[in-house]
Amino acid sequence: MKVRSSLKSLKSRHRDCKLVRRKGRIYVINKTDPRFKAKQG
């Protein structure tokens, strides 16, 4: 999982990427291609 300062750019890499807020952190999750996982904060 990558830790990035900007997740908006990562969201556009794959059409299945979703931005999710959990416990004050922002995550990019992708069910079909897990290598795009990322978190911020």
TrEMBL record:
Keywords: Ribonucleoprotein, Ribosomal protein. GO terms for cellular component: ribonucleoprotein complex; ribosome. It comes from the Bacteria. GO terms for biological process: translation. One of its GO terms (molecular function) is structural constituent of ribosome. InterPro entries: Ribosomal_bL36, Ribosomal_bL36_sp, Ribosomal_L36_bact. Belongs to the bacterial ribosomal protein bL36 family. This is Large ribosomal subunit protein bL36. It comes from Caulobacter mirabilis. The gene is rpmJ.
